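pinned: reference chain
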Amino acid sequence: MRFLSKVVLLSLMPGGILFAVPVIPGLNGKHPLDEAKTGHLLMEELRCAACHELPGATTMKLAPDLSEAGSRLNLDYLMRYLTDPHEVHPGTTMPDVLGGLPKAEKAKVSESISHYLRSLTSEEGQAKEVTGDAKLGREIFHEVGCVACHAPEGKGFDKAKSLAHISGKYLEGALASFLLDPLKVRPSGRMPNMNLTSAEAGGLEAYLGGKAGKPVKPDAKLVALGKANFEKYDCVACHTMGNAKPVTGPKLQEVDLKKGCFVGKGANYQLSDGQAKAIASALEKPVKFSDEDRVQMKLTQLNCIACHTRDDFGGVAEEIDEFFHTTEEALGDAARIPPPLTKIGGKLKPEWMNKVLYDGLSVRPYMKTRMPQFGREALEGLPEILAEVDELRQVDLPPPNRQEQPMVRNGGHLLLGTEGLNCISCHNYNGKESPAMKGYDLILTYQRLQPGWFYEFMKNPAKHRPGIIMPNYWPDGKAVQTEIMGGDTHEQLRALWHQFSLGRSARDPKGLQSKPNKLEVSDEVRVYRGRSRVAGFRGLAVGFPGGLNYAFNLENGALSAIWKGEYLTANWRSQGAGDFNPSERSIQLAQDVAFLQLKDSGLTWPLKPVMTKENPVNPNPLYPKNLGYAFRGYALGKDGNPTLRYLCGEIAIEDRFEVKSEKVLNRRFSFDAKQAGVLHFRALTGKIINESDGVFKTTDLRLTLGSEVKTILRSSGVNGGQELLMKIPLGPEKNTYSIDYEILR
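pinned: its structure tokens
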């Protein structure tokens, strides 16, 4: 390992100046870590514990998955990168593991490993060619949040990850494919999922110059030699490959940092003097982390602090402030700058925190910058720690008793409208747009916020969100509006809290007009995402030409509704999402997790937790996750028809619907399991009749199973109904099964 006494600067496409030493974006901003903690974070980001014993290494960055490297990476790029990673990719955290070899030998080893990696491909892994709009790509790059980690075009500053290596790295379509689901290749979330559409990902590929031509066939002899070298030079220490075992190095405290951690092989991280000093400081006296320290570490590792502040650290840097935009300029900075994370664990209810962090749920459609999805591996444990360290004083806002109810309900209704505080002049409400500015939908308040945070925020909004344009209606704790609820601050806030607790049943405040948008299907498949009574908080509605439609609950992985006729109505406009409902009467299906790996077919199927007004807290906010379900996005075909991708444990599932006839939807699954086994699928619930082999129906729907699988028809234990289970045998090869859904009414 050699150190640079001076910072080496290199130019970057699409424009900028970058460090050549390893770049950890969070460490270049206003972070909260002292020198020793900085050193500990560096050791985790550089994966020192992959080879060396490192006390307390619990959040170590994971290396990219190379199992399909040949499906996306150009052979020439691989050879150049392995020969000199720091020159080809300035700021990379990968060491030059071949740095101690003579130049000629290094070139040969790099070539062989490159051919081996190029051989790691499959027909399924091949990316499709895309036609991208570079103009759209440039707009997306500078608008959705890429500039939080990568330098904007024409601007060079030292907080950015270089993109100089992108041009020439990827095969045709591979960069776009990677950007649609980066966590598949990089599970650590350091490159998060930015919730891009196919068009946006294609545009970014065109803008960044990600096309590297056609794939080159690897040489068989070099592939064999490269596989051996991949193990010999300990690439398997970071990149899991088969059963190869990494070499275990000495304890880090015993390593002479001036000579490097691989003296014989010359591994070189190209650390700066400051980085080396920080690591030495961490090793000299191992750091003991409090829960707050772990929060600060995680926010720095994932560079959350590039967009958010927490206490006195983080925040949008001056160099990139101009790239944070909103569609509601009148709402001020609060509509374009992501909110502070100070006391966020005390602000959000646990179930909502999980929806934001794990599911990418957003309530600010007017904000152009998107909340990244870092993945479960990167965020594991963070919501729980935040809830503990950010605990706030509890405030009792009990629901009104029968005698109080008319007064409290009327008071909350009046306060929101034009005769009260006129909240609806700046906020949408209950899926309906404000007649003026369109701030976040207030009806979500009760579902999102802890009552203590709501209470304190309402009494002094600017204290919690500096610069917010929201007036203070209770300055010094005294109500400005004295004619409602007797001017009692506590009772007014209690009335508002109760009004929000009514959810979709709440009356519209005076001055608010409902203008639902009717969406129609033309000659292509139409997809719409948002909340829905038929598909939950993460609903997906798909409409086919000809009038067949279905809704899918992405949170739990369940087909939740089918209907024929007109598509849907959406009650607000946003970034492709909003509250929606079918335009016709739909056939409702269960919204519980649909796939399980049951050890015993006789076990009771675990149902989705049900919340009521009396019991509003979700008793199991991680219900789908605890059962092994994880949504992995969807890919749109040429006709716009989505293929849904999700997991049941380690089993990867692809799910796609096609119109078979006027009233029949065909559903085709493919299952990619690592080993043989049985998967249970809950195909239908209700009062079920078994018509014949593989054919089952309810009053409204008939299911015809396209494959011979064992079925179990049993009591569901819910309102005297039944449930149909399919036992799907899986092998090590990809398996496919299909079902026809026929509408009977």
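why pinned: The first strand starts at residue 9 and ends at 11. Residues 1-19, 573-577 have pLDDT under 50 and may be disordered.
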